[in-house]
Design brief:
alpha/beta, 9 helices
Length: 311
C-alpha cells in the first residue's frame, strides 16, 4: 500500500519510531536553540494521519510549528495501521494494543531525544480513545520512566450522538456519505478555502480493527477513565455532531475520571469536529498548550505529588 507524502511546514520532518517491533512513522518539530521543555505527543483520529496536526491550508493551523515556537518538542505519531505500518498491519490493531504500541514508541523516542519534563498527550477523535487507553495502564503494571504530564482530547466523548448503525467507524454503518461528511466537518465557513485541496495527503482508510472496536467504546470508557491518574482536558467543538455534549452528558463524562487530579471540559466556538484543520485551530492549540503549562506549574508546585509515567 502506498501513501502520498505529506507537504510539511518549515522545521517539521519525518521520523520513524520502534513500537515494540513495529515501525511507526510520524512527524517531528523541535524548538530551535533551546532544550525542549516537554514533548507534546499528537495522536490523530480515524481516517486521518499525523499530518492532521500540520495543516497546510493556512500557516496558523500547524500544532507542530506552534508548539516548537513555544519551546516544546511536538511529535505527531502515525498510529498502527497508518502510513509506514499499514503494509505490516493492514487491519490495524485493537485499542489495547494501540495503547501499548504508543507507550513503546514513546520509550523509543525518549531513548534518542530530549524530553524535558515529560510527555503530554494531545489527541483527536479515535486518537483520544488510544491516548486514554495508554494513560490508563490497563495491564496494571507499575509505571516507570518519563512523566506523563496530562491528556488533552478533542472530538471524543463517551456517548455517541448517533445511532449505532450510523457510527462512522463501525462495521455496516448506513449513514449516507454526504451526511457523514457534514458531521465530520460542519459548515464550510469554519475552514480556510484550501482545506480540502491540501488535506488529500492526510486522509487514509480506517483499519478494520478500529471499526470493530468503535461501537464498544461507551462500555470501555467506563473501564478506562477511572484508571487515568493525570490531569485531563476534553474539548467539544461548537458543531460537534458525533458525540453527546449536553450539560448532563458532560457532567457524567467528567465524573468518570475519578482518579484524575483535575478534569476540565470545554467548548471551542466556531469549530467543527476536525477542529485542528479549521480557523479555530490556533485558538484550540493555544488553549491546549496553556493546559500543559498549568500541568507544569502543578508539577513544580507539588513535587511530592508525582504524575504517572510512560512505560
Amino acid at each position: 500500500m502506498t501513501t502520498r507524502a505529506p507537504q510539511l511546514s518549515c522545521g517539521v520532518r519525518e521520523i520513524t519510531l520502534d513500537a515494540g517491533g513495529v515501525a511507526l512513522s510520524g512527524l517531528l518539530s523541535e524548538p530551535g536553540h533551546t532544550r525542549a521543555r516537554a514533548v507534546v505527543v499528537a495522536v490523530h483520529g480515524g481516517g486521518m494521519n499525523a499530518g492532521y496536526f500540520d495543516g497546510q491550508a493556512s500557516p496558523q493551523l500547524s500544532l507542530l510549528t506552534l508548539g516548537a515556537s513555544l519551546g516544546y518538542t511536538v511529535l505527531a505519531v502515525d498510529r498502527p495501521g497508518y502510513r509506514r505500518s499499514a503494509p505490516e498491519l493492514p487491519a490495524g490493531q485493537p485499542l489495547a494494543a494501540q495503547g501499548r504500541a504508543l507507550r513503546a514508541a514513546l520509550r523509543d523516542f525518549a531513548s534518542r531525544y530530549e524530553v524535558g519534563a515529560g510527555f503530554f498527550l494531545l489527541a483527536h477523535s479515535y486518537g483520544g480513545k488510544v491516548a486514554l487507553t495508554a494513560a490508563a495502564d490497563l495491564e496494571g503494571r507499575d509505571l516507570t520512566g518519563h512523566d506523563l504530564l496530562g491528556v488533552d482530547i478533542s472530538g471524543c466523548g463517551h456517548l455517541y450522538a448517533v445511532e449505532r448503525h450510523d457510527i462512522p467507524d463501525s462495521p455496516g454503518h448506513s449513514a449516507p456519505a454526504r451526511r457523514q461528511w457534514a458531521k465530520h466537518w460542519g459548515p464550510l465557513r469554519l475552514y480556510p478555502p484550501n482545506t480540502f485541496r491540501t488535506s488529500g495527503a492526510l486522509v487514509a482508510p480506517m483499519p478494520a480493527q478500529e471499526r470493530a472496536d468503535a461501537a464498544m467504546w461507551p462500555r470501555r470508557f467506563h473501564e478506562i477513565a477511572p484508571r487515568v491518574r493525570v490531569p485531563v482536558r476534553l474539548t467539544f467543538a461548537e458543531y460537534e455532531a458525533w458525540w453527546r455534549h449536553d450539560e448532563a452528558s458532560l457532567a457524567e463524562l467528567a465524573g468518570a475520571f475519578s482518579a484524575a487530579p483535575r478534569v476540565l471540559v470545554e467548548r471551542q466556538p466556531d469549530a467543527g469536529h476536525n477542529v485542528s484543520l479549521g480557523w479555530a485551530a490556533r485558538a484550540y492549540h493555544l488553549r491546549a498548550l496553556a493546559f500543559l503549562e498549568s500541568c507544569l506549574v502543578a508539577r513544580e508546585a507539588s513535587p511530592a505529588r508525582r504524575p504517572a509515567a510512560v512505560s
